[in-house]
Design brief:
- The complex is a heterodimer.
- By secondary structure, chain A is mainly α.
- Chain A folds into two domains: 244 residues, Cytochrome Bc1 Complex, Chain C (Up-down Bundle); 79 residues, no CATH class.
- Chain A is built from 15 helices and two strands.
- The longest helix of chain A is centred in the middle third of the chain and has 33 residues.
- Chain A starts with 14 loop residues before the first helix and ends with a helix.
- In chain B, the strands form two sheets. Chain B has a six-stranded antiparallel sheet with strand order 1-10-9-4-3-2, with no helix packed on it. Chain B has a four-stranded antiparallel sheet with strand order 5-6-7-8, with no helix packed on it.
- Chain B starts with a helix and ends with a strand.
- At the A-B interface, helix 1 and helix 5 of A face helix 2 of B.
- Bound molecules: FE2/S2 (inorganic) cluster.
- FE2/S2 (inorganic) cluster binds next to loops of chain B.
Chain lengths: 367, 159
């Protein structure tokens, strides 16, 4: 509302805004946001994916709290989700929005990660941004995995069993971890109860803390520019103010995301299968969610190449090595002085991206 | 949104007109979203209230023979969502009351030895035959239901 962002202004403004401003320093905040610059170039589009992920996370929080109003973990889990889906008015929509935004969030976080990778935004001084982001992706996936079990229908039951194969292969510790996660030898009501605790308390707390750290780093270091921009002389580079320009575009992206979510959630409502039956055989073509498909496929393929436990152990070693290399990339491609390493890193990223996509397609082709 | 302020602002500074227009636009678009989001959320949260309202609206309750209270005793049962009390009087007749105290809504109790209906919260007392408030803070008599006995089955209806 201020006509000029003059810092010297002392006169309090009239009205509610002035009253709040005097007490909360809103003008300082606005002036700060106006002075902050965001680089503007051909690849600016990719800057919005972190914000889109954040928006979807907020949708998760809100819809998750709404589901919490009726969801009952433990033995009644299936019945309560059935009630939410069929008896409670608009319950199907809230549940559908929660499931769809979860999937969109995983997708947005992946897009964000790869765009950061190819823009080389992991380089000095942004290493911790890279690592905290990877940890957030990891938490997002555990969120997805733990949430998938909660309705306790047939599909979620077997997908959880199949998914637990992955930690099961950790040499030595695997079986202990899985027994602890399941709360016994089998996936049961006890498992739902602990997945629920994980899903609604432990993970959100950890996620919010990490997210705060991540956002603080983004604010501290600002947006990284891609190498093509770095080559340009300073005066040729363009930027826009964070507020209102970038902020407005950010909000426009949120709006688009919300519309996409609304369309998906209402036109393709998330289904609920038959209740889980521990003595019934697994349905044909049981598979984990799409974001676990590549790992699942690696385990499957390695198991085929090297029969017995060797295959599984090699499989898990293979993708663990991949994840370790992936997170260590800031130590290899440190800054913009080594063109050869920069090229290698890009090829590595391309290989990882293609590998993930191909393995996922392969996995689906084999169901 | 402070519309007055906008008008004042663009009277002195015409360049602000666009901004005011933009803000109004954002406001309208925002309102278009708030409704479709708030409405389902409201209905979602209100479903149990609606269900209990439907339950509360029932008009009669039948009490099977085996639950019939012995002479001089009472039966507590739920009439829709509210507690009710059915007293089998010494003379063989039945009376039935809404068991919610007319003072502050505690559930009242039939006390056979004292031959009264009593509310423990603030010591209100009601006449067991008529439900009239006879002592303590209750301002009104208890709500009475109609009781009909036919073929050993008791039917309680709203009076
Ligand atoms: S509520 Fe019964 S006497 Fe006060």
């Amino acid at each position: 509302m201020g006509k000029s962002p003059s810092l010297a202004r002392k006169e309090p403004q009239p009205g509610l805004y002035g009253w709040l401003d005097e007490r909360l320093g809103l003008d300082e905040l606005l002036d700060f946001a106006r002075a902050k610059e965001v680089p503007h170039h051909g690849q600016s589009f990719w800057y919005y994916w972190g914000g889109i992920s954040l928006f979807l996370f907020l949708v998760q929080l809100v819809t998750g709290i709404l589901l919490l109003v009726y969801y009952r973990p433990g033995a009644e889990a299936y019945e309560s989700v059935r009630q939410i889906t069929y008896d409670i008015e608009f319950g199907w929509l809230i549940r559908s929005a929660h499931s769809w935004s979860a999937n969109l969030m995983v997708l947005a976080v992946f897009v964000h990660m790869f765009s950061v990778f190819f823009m080389k935004a992991y380089r000095k001084p942004r290493e911790f941004g890279w690592w905290s982001g990877l940890a957030l992706l990891g938490l997002t996936m555990v969120f997805g995995f733990s949430g998938y079990l909660l309705p306790f229908d047939e599909l979620s039951y077997f997908a959880t069993k199949v998914g637990l194969e992955i930690p099961q292969t950790i040499p030595g510790l695997g079986p202990v971890i899985v027994t602890l996660l399941q709360g016994g030898e089998q996936v049961s009501a006890v498992t739902i109860q602990r997945f629920f605790a994980l899903h609604v308390v432990v993970l959100p707390l950890a996620f919010l803390a990490l997210l705060g750290f991540h956002l603080w780093l983004v604010q501290k270091h600002g947006n990284a520019v891609p190498p093509s921009e770095e080559l340009k002389p300073e005066e040729k580079r363009r930027s826009i103010p964070f507020f209102p320009n970038f902020f407005a575009k950010d909000m426009a992206m949120w709006l688009i995301t919300m519309n996409v979510l609304a369309i998906l959630a209402s036109l393709y409502p998330w289904g609920l299968g038959a209740p889980a039956d521990p003595i019934a055989p697994a349905p044909e073509g049981i598979h984990p969610e799409w974001y676990f498909m590549s790992q699942f496929q690696i385990l499957k393929v390695f198991g085929r190449w090297f029969p017995g436990m060797t295959g599984e152990v090699l499989g898990i070693l293979f993708f663990t090595a991949g994840i370790v290399l992936w997170s260590l990339i800031p130590f290899y491609d440190k800054d913009n002085t080594n063109a050869r390493r920069a090229r290698h890193a890009s090829w590595f990223g391309l290989a990882a991206l293609t590998g993930l996509i191909l393995l996922t397609i392969w996995g689906y082709a084999e169901i | 949104m402070s519309k007055k302020k906008h008008k004042a602002a663009h009277a002195e500074e015409p360049e602000l007109t666009r901004r005011a227009l933009f803000r109004t636009g954002v406001g309208i678009v925002g309102a278009c979203y708030v409704g479709p989001i708030a409405y389902p959320v409201y209905r979602y949260l209100a479903t149990p209230a609606k269900q209990s309202a439907a339950l509360a609206a029932i008009k009669e309750v039948s009490i099977p023979q085996e639950q019939m209270p012995a002479l001089g005793t009472a039966l507590r049962f739920a009439f829709g969502t509210r507690p009710a009390i059915l007293i089998h009087m010494e003379d063989g007749s039945f009376v039935c009351f809404d068991a919610v105290c007319t003072h502050l809504g505690c559930t009242v109790e039939f006390q056979p030895e004292e031959k009264r209906i009593h509310c423990a919260c603030h010591g209100g007392t009601y006449d067991m035959a008529t439900g009239k408030n006879v002592a303590g803070p209750p301002p009104k008599p208890l709500n009475q239901y109609k009781v009909e006995v036919a073929n050993g089955q008791i039917t309680v209806t709203r009076a």
